[in-house]
Structure formats: structure tokens, C-alpha cells
Write a structure and sequence with these properties.
Helices cover 54% and strands 0% of the residues. It contains three helices and no strands. The protein has helices at 2-9, 31-35, 43-64. The longest helix has 22 residues, at 43-64. 2% of the residues are buried.
Length: 65
């Protein structure tokens, strides 16, 4: 599973998921505004990674059987 490796690369040894957008407000027209949004660990990034890892584990378990 290629995506699993990519996700795992962003999880530190202490379990923190990095490279998460600090937040994306709506309504801006300039692309640079979105490029300037801070990237740092955020709770919703943690949650999405956990959900993905649960689903990846299910898939890997199916492949082993």
C-alpha cells in the first residue's frame, strides 16, 4: 500500500502527525493566501490519520488471509 508509507513518513516517533494545514478559511480569491497558511500538527490531522490507519489495517489484514 503506497499511501500507507507516505502517511507514516509524517508521523513522528511520539505519534504526532505533521504537515497538517493550520486551517483553511473560505472566501479568499488570491492563491497565495492559501499557500501562506501555516503547516503544523493539528487535532483534525491526527484524527484523519487514525481513521486512515484503521482502514489500512483492515485492508492489510484482508491481503494476508
Amino acid at each position: 500500500m503506497k499511501p500507507l508509507g507516505a502517511v507514516m513518513d509524517y508521523i513522528s516517533e511520539d505519534g504526532v502527525v505533521g504537515q497538517v494545514s493550520y486551517g483553511t478559511p473560505m472566501g479568499r480569491e488570491e492563491k497565495q493566501f492559501y499557500k501562506d497558511i501555516e503547516i503544523r500538527p493539528m487535532p483534525y490531522g491526527q484524527a484523519m490519520a487514525i481513521l486512515y490507519l484503521i482502514e489500512a489495517r483492515k485492508e492489510l489484514t484482508r491481503e494476508v488471509k
